[in-house]
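[job 0417] fold request received: Lytic polysaccharide monooxygenase
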Amino acid sequence: MALTATPARAHGSMQSPVSRVLACYQEGPEHPTSPACRAAVAAGGTQAFYDWNGVRLANAGGRSRQLIPDGKLCSAGADEFKGLDLARDDWPATPMSSGRFTFSYKATAPHKGTFALYITKDGYDPGKPLKWSDLEAQPFATATNPPLSGGSYTFTGNVPQRTGRQLIYSIWQRSDSPEAFYTCSDVVFGGGKQSGPAPTASAPSDAQLAAGAAKSSMKDMPGMRPAANAPAPDGSASPVRDQALAETGSSSLTVALGIGGAAAVAVGCGVVLTGARRKAVGRNRS
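[job 0417] inference complete; emitting structure tokens
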């Protein structure tokens, strides 16, 4: 009998600059405080924000531009996340300036892959649906297999000169699977035409993420079970211990299940063999 481990599937979202989905989760999916997040909940419901790490395409395979239609970049074309596509100029945003910046990406399951970050062009209008042509053709920052620490990938990049409200779009394309993940992070540079004051975006803490995990539909994912994978008191995330296993498509949980299954098979075989021996002894005595 062949024993196979269930592959661990990667999930995550941009922490810094914080993505729309995480910023609204931080406000509270049931009662968000900003007008944009309230509108997003009204458009698509609360589940999208409990599933903050699931904006993805299972079979992207490097074909994101071909598969995700204009106007649906922030949701990756998924109806559950359609609230993230609302064209507004008041999304909670992160203050930004040009130059070197350290990006942080929260990962609930680590995997090998490449991050590519794109920024909107000069003249971007946040009041219109986001199109691929609104983004620069080439990423301004890329990172392949960046280091993972405290449950987050971190890498640096040089942010181009911009003014006013802009958007940073991330694609995390796995190299061990065709699956890819997407985020929209609203940022505000100094100068230029400002659309008026907007809430400053904040990322949720590990404790806040763990508190909402029970309502996530991503329960089969490492890092989404509060009882087993809640953040440690020092703020580190327990899924990090499974990094090496997750990179090969398994986790300590699936390995443990495999070991348990093997043990059960061994016990069953032992019972069958014992029964066969007893029958043989009985025939010989007769």
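[job 0417] notes: Confidence is low (pLDDT under 50) at residues 1-10, 220-286. The longest strand covers residues 164-174.
[job 0417] exit 0
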